[in-house]
Amino acid sequence: MNHQEKSERDELRARFTGWLEVTLYRAKLNYVKKLERDKGIVYVDELPEELWASENPEKNWIQRITESEGFQFEEERLEKAFHTLSEQRQEILSMLFVEEQTPKEVAGRISCSLRHVYKQRSHALKQLRKMLEEGGEDNE
Amino acid sequence: MSKEEFRSILIGAVSGNHEDLEKILELYMPLIEKNSYLNGNRDEDLKQYLMIHIALQIGKFPI
Q1: CA-based diameter of chain A, in Å?
Q2: Where are the domains of chain A?
Q3: Element (H, E) at B42
Q4: Is residue B24 within 8 Å of residue B17, measured between CB atoms?
């Protein structure tokens, strides 16, 4: 009987401890994700005045960020190739590789399907590879 | 803590009793502390976040 009681006590406590460990782990992941998300937030009053004078402040701001904090290209030809990509593909690659967001997060941010993000990433990388290979041949 | 005590506290905490919730938090503080480190540094905000999270989620624990 004593043995049975002990095993019952252990079962409830062990079950709760296990549940709590999983709950805390998930909560910590959410907290870290939230921190990462908040890093990219720019509040309206932080935008420089000259941007408001332009026709499309949001686009200009994004351009400014990608210019200052975007890819640090080691090779000039890679930079050139990157800028020949469509704006959306550039944006997707920046979010995936510079901001290190998951494809799911990217899909949420640009309001499109996950499949679209994968497709655009794949096409963009193929396009870059092709252009670099062609450029390499030209250089030789 | 005996089986009955733990069970009673847990049932109280799950059903929304603040005192019992505090006892559970106290009992599991080492686990909360262990999870309150980010990149090797203790993060007080994270600790608060975890405690609030427990308080909000404990009602979902199936007894």
Answers
A1: 85
A2: 1-39, 70-140
A3: strand B41-42
A4: no
Would you call B54 and A12 a contact, using CB atoms and an 8 Å cutoff? no
**Structural domain containing residue B9:** 3-58
Residue B24 lies in a domain: yes
CB contact under 8 A, B6 and A28: no
CATH topology of domain A70-140: Arc Repressor Mutant, subunit A (1.10.10)
Residue B39 gets the label, from left (phi > 0), alpha (psi -120 to 50) or beta, of left
| ipTM value greater than 0.90 | yes
The enclosing H or E element of B38 equals strand B37-38
CB pairs A-B closer than 8 Å: 44
Cα A126 to its chain centre, rounded Å, is 20
Q: Is the pTM of this model over 0.80?
A: no
| Residue pLDDT tens, chain B, 63 long | 888 899 999 999 999 999 999 999 999 999 999 999 998 899 999 999 999 999 999 999 998
Cα A55 to chain centroid distance, Å, stands at 27
